[in-house]
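Job type: complex structure
Entries:
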Amino acid sequence: MNFEYSDVCKDYLRRLRAFMDAHIYPNERTYHEQLKSFGENRWQVIPVIEELKVKAREAGLWNLFLPDSDLGAGLSNADYAPLAEEMGRVPWSSEVFNCAAPDTGNMEVLVRYGTKEQQDQWLTPLLKGEIRSAFLMTEPAVASSDATNIECSITRDGDDYVVNGVKWWSSGAGDPRCKVFIVMGKTDPSAETYRQQSMILVPADAPGVTILRHLPVFGYDDAPHGHMEVKLDNVRVPASSMLLGEGRGFEIAQGRLGPGRIHHCMRTIGAAERALELMVRRAMNREAFGKRVIQHSIWEHRIAKARIDIESARLLTLKAAWMMDTVGNKAARGEIAMIKVAAPRVALQVIDDAIQVHGGGGVSDDFPLAAAYAGIRTLRIADGPDEVHERTIARLEAKRWLNEA
Amino acid sequence: MNFEYSDVCKDYLRRLRAFMDAHIYPNERTYHEQLKSFGENRWQVIPVIEELKVKAREAGLWNLFLPDSDLGAGLSNADYAPLAEEMGRVPWSSEVFNCAAPDTGNMEVLVRYGTKEQQDQWLTPLLKGEIRSAFLMTEPAVASSDATNIECSITRDGDDYVVNGVKWWSSGAGDPRCKVFIVMGKTDPSAETYRQQSMILVPADAPGVTILRHLPVFGYDDAPHGHMEVKLDNVRVPASSMLLGEGRGFEIAQGRLGPGRIHHCMRTIGAAERALELMVRRAMNREAFGKRVIQHSIWEHRIAKARIDIESARLLTLKAAWMMDTVGNKAARGEIAMIKVAAPRVALQVIDDAIQVHGGGGVSDDFPLAAAYAGIRTLRIADGPDEVHERTIARLEAKRWLNEA
Amino acid sequence: MNFEYSDVCKDYLRRLRAFMDAHIYPNERTYHEQLKSFGENRWQVIPVIEELKVKAREAGLWNLFLPDSDLGAGLSNADYAPLAEEMGRVPWSSEVFNCAAPDTGNMEVLVRYGTKEQQDQWLTPLLKGEIRSAFLMTEPAVASSDATNIECSITRDGDDYVVNGVKWWSSGAGDPRCKVFIVMGKTDPSAETYRQQSMILVPADAPGVTILRHLPVFGYDDAPHGHMEVKLDNVRVPASSMLLGEGRGFEIAQGRLGPGRIHHCMRTIGAAERALELMVRRAMNREAFGKRVIQHSIWEHRIAKARIDIESARLLTLKAAWMMDTVGNKAARGEIAMIKVAAPRVALQVIDDAIQVHGGGGVSDDFPLAAAYAGIRTLRIADGPDEVHERTIARLEAKRWLNEA
Amino acid sequence: MNFEYSDVCKDYLRRLRAFMDAHIYPNERTYHEQLKSFGENRWQVIPVIEELKVKAREAGLWNLFLPDSDLGAGLSNADYAPLAEEMGRVPWSSEVFNCAAPDTGNMEVLVRYGTKEQQDQWLTPLLKGEIRSAFLMTEPAVASSDATNIECSITRDGDDYVVNGVKWWSSGAGDPRCKVFIVMGKTDPSAETYRQQSMILVPADAPGVTILRHLPVFGYDDAPHGHMEVKLDNVRVPASSMLLGEGRGFEIAQGRLGPGRIHHCMRTIGAAERALELMVRRAMNREAFGKRVIQHSIWEHRIAKARIDIESARLLTLKAAWMMDTVGNKAARGEIAMIKVAAPRVALQVIDDAIQVHGGGGVSDDFPLAAAYAGIRTLRIADGPDEVHERTIARLEAKRWLNEA
């Protein structure tokens, strides 16, 4: 047993932190001011992001998430996890390192399952950070927590496929650089349940694609990224756009899933860690009733709970990452389900307490807390609500005793 | 002991509900669409509000909060409380009945403490719903949870007072109809602690008044109401603008406090009640894993908890209102502190569960849940954070045993 | 709306409190010492109880629970509730006033459904406090939370019924004065579900009755009351022992239920109230890190929460009692389910915090806290576990929207 | 980073589990029956324990806790931790492997700080499992959470020390085999705060030692181990009984502390793990409302939460153990404080849920749940209450920002 990060991880972490200190934290205000300066015209690229991307790439902090060393940094899940945590401290910073969702998951899909042609067209510019992408899965009309409910149709018509459906929570589809969608839909409603769905590549500017609206999250539009409702109306794409083959949508979804959860959870822990830092500093700097807030035992209690819960969630996530690296996604599916429930639960409580100690400032945008709360609250719903993962965990427990019960 | 609402309360409640059914709920979408149609130019009156105000006044549902029967409906706190709950189901509806904060508190101050001149100038148009008002108390530079920290200065200069300071969370100051501020500030820093502060009337358009910015709550700007940061730079007002007399700010604050807390808490309970309704209906209408969501025992648990907690918080608030009516604010201060802590705590949990059952829709603006969460989250901070009220309650407990301990 | 107790309630409460001060609290130690002095031979009457019963009867504090004024005090549920709370402060005190479970419920059954003969034989001595009784319902072999599962058989044989089964958690059956059991069992397994069960009177000394063992609650045996496992092996009783008629067991159970829940919940609130008193006093009297424990904000927080939660649970229970009095058990079934869940939940948290502030003393028997915790923990299970009542509450919520959903 | 247990740990774990399966679980009933058969005469050795000790020693499962390989198994904290967890599944099993508190801590003290003479007299028979020991620290008269409050006096008188004081929660002092106490007391009240206290060896049968009473824990006497209140009345011991030297009591306490917390926390996790197993099995085997309890989503939720929380607490504890092994107790003091708060918190919730699913059986002694709850509840108080450890954690957080705040 060894809880120490590997040397390669520690080296990247050191360099990443130096970059954050030099370029990310000092630009947090700039980011928001540039966005604000756009006024209503918010769905455009924020200049500071593009400037920092150049710097990050020069610093060798680029595509860190990719385990494939020819294309990315070649880090294991366990080695990348602490880097994802660090990026989670500033929500927009992942993009600077070309490590932002949903591009990361989409790039992995293309690396694993894309044809040479698909890779040339979409993977190459994604790896360079020239374009962005979206993942169109969830639909407003059905309970998408059960992915078999998805109704978007993908129909073969000669050398093309024709796609029809309405998707929402298509995150990133608001960005003008977003050029391609991976769309999940039904190719064969009569096939067995897990062979009905396929994934297909759809250019964002294909005729028939309409962005209906953006969906706010607790009042935030998350521009220019955004969470879009997208209509696909007789969208026609060449048959070569199919990923892996008809009926293999769930197979791709499974492969895409694990690493993304590690990334999300570690970023969530990074957000919690930063909230704790803000909570402690604020409590040290404010006085109430004759002493510093941090000397009041209710805050000792909350700070201690935050520290315990963050450490616990981090260890749980690191173990899940390590298991994915050593025994694979399937054997680690219990652990992956656990962190999906645990990390947001922990972070939301820490951030909420941090909001409380900041008073009015906490709910406003003077601190990154309210926005972090809103963003992380969605994680209890996105990619399967808590209840679905709890079900998975409980069933794995039951399995242990099935023959004996 | 009798838990039944009085006849007069029941009559108003019946009429209010009929009005809500006929005019408020059907216009919820209209309200948001009119606001949205303003685009960036959001700080203006929403037409549907003014239309409905006329209707409400005609229906005799106007100034219901005022216990003074010449000016308002003459209802006791206990009789008004259930009406406030009903209005709380739609956040903007209170204004339709001229029962919206902070006008209600400000009108009460003017009724109780205003001179004839002050009343003619400000109370009369407020009662008519022609103008709105703001209450400028909290300051960004100090821990305002301890109101003795407030630093804004009010200095006598000949026949005038000169006001200097920066206030924030001045709710409603974003509205173009907001014509007057009640400002808390120090007239005599050398007086004993609770005699240093005064309250003074300041016209919103007085020279030296600058709205610096609006403060979002989570991502909501709450336009056109808004929560503003306001600079008062050598703002000069006639000496007759002083309320009650120099050094009597805390006295006024005390008198203003109790009823406002009842209103806030009952509206909060109304919001929780509506969230529960939405939660139940959604759980009845969605299927997951082969049965309706409401048949899953985790939702039975959450719905039951919501019902228990809402009933409890309502009874606690009604009792506080009844005590204010029967034994007065001072004797009821423990109960008032209790509801200030309990009502938001209950409502936030109910709304959070309601969000969860709505999936992606829950965090967006397709349902009124995320906005309700954000708004009510501020109540754990505004008007004294939880910790201050808990301190009050604990001290009252200690007093019971002081001579015996 | 009026939260004041009635005059008759206040008068009884004043007299009850005086009695508690004069006779109960001063004898708490005596009670435990007398019990302890029995050593292993614990299943016998504790002398101080019998002495105090005489005094209570003389003081007119006897059979207070009975709404029938010829037999008891003639108090409504709402008027009796505050008295039950008061008794709940000392677990054994109810018996002093002949207001202890399960006798209260059993007496109510006999008053409502007993024949003259049954009443003469069993009700009269119960009302005089000469004998005690038990209620045999739950069985070890089945999930008794669903009462239709109960398997004990009651078979007609000539002029007799023959009873066979094993019951457990037969509280009070350990007491040598316990002379009669009300037994629930199946008379007709082929009848429709809710007509299969009957209730029958069985003398405790009938041939075939064997007390198999006592069941401890945590480490408490609750002697001499006790919670017994009882075997009924071909127990023969005259046919006149049947209550109300064959197949009417559920009807009786329903009638027995409501008032008993009010009693239990109010006693639970009394226990919570006492725990809060102990918590506050202890926190006032101990120093840690340079100041009194009560001045530490974590204890302000816990004390405030305790006060809020106790007040809320009390109001909820009083409202349930008032509804039973005014609209009946059936219309109040939601409220009765709510208090069944809420009161133990609140009390357990308050008692747990009180234990914490007492340190080592808290878990021992130097204070009545650990024993109260153990006793009240059973209430989340007994008489239907939380989950069953939450189900009831959720279904009532669903009903409200059924036609509209 | 590597979450795999070491080979030596895995080997011991395999053998320990085999021993548990072969000898401990099959004797759980025997243990309780033998104890029960003693009746009132409970403070004597339970035969099965002595029989199993022989077997365990033969199996090479003896003194596993001792890092010193000449005397014990020579395992690191990280390697011993999983073994402690395993033993925690059956509370009395640790003693079988001579790994029970407080002997383990006392042996460590003697190994580290004892003279040859002290070791010959007390360590040797303790290592052989021939005698047992107690640790006398806490006092009823003072808030012992602040150890500087301890008042027991140890006065030099010629070649002897004379000890006077009253101690309580002297666990294990009820056992007839308990032959020696380590007593903490003041040798020099005028010294600086952390040099006033010393530790001294006192034979259990020294004149002046009186066991005043045993302290129950939620009704359990924990015989024959027990938690005793002990009077030391002019107890005279030779000066050579002093440990390490006058004024070094805190130094010894510090050294004794870390490993003991790892042991306690891992045993606590073992108890939680077993409770989860019982909860899952019960939920699989019982039906309610037409399906198995485990298929109800409220139990999926509770089981998942239990699994997440147990995994988290285990990882946190293993990391604390690993830090103690690699960077030492002092650097690990934050982690040690964290597990002291986290492990009991987690276990109590899991056990409480397990009790709930067992219904009446859960609070009785038919399952080991209620007893586990009671025992673990004391851990939130013993060895410093939660609040003290939370204070430590919060202060360490503050230190991180002290120069920057």
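Summary: The first strand of chain C starts at residue 132 and ends at 136. Chain C touches chain D through 46 residues (CB under 8 Å).
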